[in-house]
Write a structure and sequence with these properties.
mainly alpha, 0% strand
Length: 145
């Protein structure tokens, strides 16, 4: 499909929750105190990378750059496979950081950041699930083309 009809086909409709969940991970991790730069840096890289590439891929679909070629289906399946793997690793790392940073005292500011980290973990796993579902249907579409 081309144009806005991209948003009416099932696997491509998943671009919207990918944007929402990935953007929320990006915002939530950026708004908290980054205690483990290497681990949370990977989470930020994954969320920005996937957000940017999903935007680019969807814009190319909107413009009709794929021209109906089956190679674009392979690109879509490959990208969503890599993105699902990246997001799974980022979600596990963010969960590990969140468990490590659990507040031990009654500091309200620490508890607020802890809640934001929990929300980032939840949205990272939701983004992972969305990318896995999109990957599965993209692979089925690629196999049938």
């Amino acid at each position: 499909p081309t144009g806005f009809s991209v948003l009416t086909t099932f696997p491509d409709l998943l671009f919207i929750p990918e944007f929402v969940f990935g953007g929320l991970v990006w915002i939530l991790v950026a708004s908290t105190k980054v205690a483990f730069q290497l681990l949370q840096g990977w989470v930020m890289f994954v969320s920005v990378f996937c957000f940017t590439l999903s935007t680019l891929l969807m814009c190319l679909y909107f413009c009709g750059a794929h021209g109906g070629k089956s190679s674009w289906i392979a690109v879509d399946a490959f990208y969503h496979s890599v993105a699902a793997l990246f997001y799974l690793s980022a979600a596990v790392l963010q969960a590990s950081v969140t468990i490590t940073l659990r507040p031990t005292n009654d500091d309200a500011a620490q508890f607020k950041m802890y809640q934001e980290d929990i929300a980032a973990v939840v949205f990272a796993f939701l983004a992972t699930l969305t990318y896995v579902i999109h990957k599965g249907f993209s692979l089925l579409r690629w196999k049938s083309s």
